[in-house]
Amino acid sequence: MNRVSVRxxxxxPYRLVDGRPQVALxxxxxxxxxxxxxxxxxAGEDWAAAAARETCEETGLQVRLGMPLPEARYPVSRSGLKxxxxxxxxxxxxxxxxxxxxxxxxxxxxxxxxxRLTYARDREQCDALVALHEQGTLATWPLLLVxxxxxxxxxxxxxxxxxxxxxxxxxxxxxxLAGLLRAYAPHRVLSSPSVRCVDTLQPFVAATGTLMVTKKxxxxxxxxxxxxxxxKHLGRLLTTADPAxxxxxxxxxxxxxxxxxxxxxxSLGTGDRRLLSRLGTVSPDKGEVLVCLMQGAGAQARVVxxxxxxx
Length: 311
What we know:
The chain is an alpha/beta fold. The protein has two domains: 3-135, Nucleoside Triphosphate Pyrophosphohydrolase; 141-309, Phosphoglycerate mutase-like (Rossmann fold), CATH 3.40.50. The protein has nine helices and 13 strands. It starts with a strand and ends with a strand.
């Protein structure tokens, strides 16, 4: 049986022109082919982080990941497979300067792109992006729910509980999270003031200059005193409808995910609905990011897709 020997990730960078999507293909002179920007994962790197990083390295474009697209698997040796995960990705910056193994980038409408692609396997992602656009679910904004990384155990800590720091394992995960969060490019970052939450987000904040705001209502102690405040903080993010990250603790996830379950779009898949329900009971892993892709704002904000990024 063939096994996955190469892990890679990429994107279909898109922009809307007169309400219609255009997608970016890259030409690699080494292979003389037209394909989607993609590349191998670095050691310990998250799939989504690699997708955004490789896109920037190959095209000079900064992207924000959106809806997941079909992955590709194909043989790269007699006994090995290459697995490539893809996302639709809105272009949010960059000058399009070619930087890495690419000599040309071309913006085309999906029909032209489908014909230009060298490999038939790449056309499945193109078809999926077109289908999302026709269904009205291509353009989204991300709400990133982060559970703090591994902290020193309560029984091993003698100071106030909010001051418990991350372990070495937790610090390693927080550094990895910087690339993962960057792939979704949140404009707003909210956190519990507890050290273990703040430090989970600190590498991302330091790398990007994004302002982090702490809210007592996102802490365990604040939740015990006023359980409704977390819903108010979440509601403000939904009203703003701006890409955002929220870092908090296990006891609060049940309340947060119950609110988001009530906002499931009719198009939300059964698996994603079950995931919201299950994680509302058992909570995400420490250091996990649960990506809720949203459409709309305020009372009309709806969850259209859910993805887990586990440590």
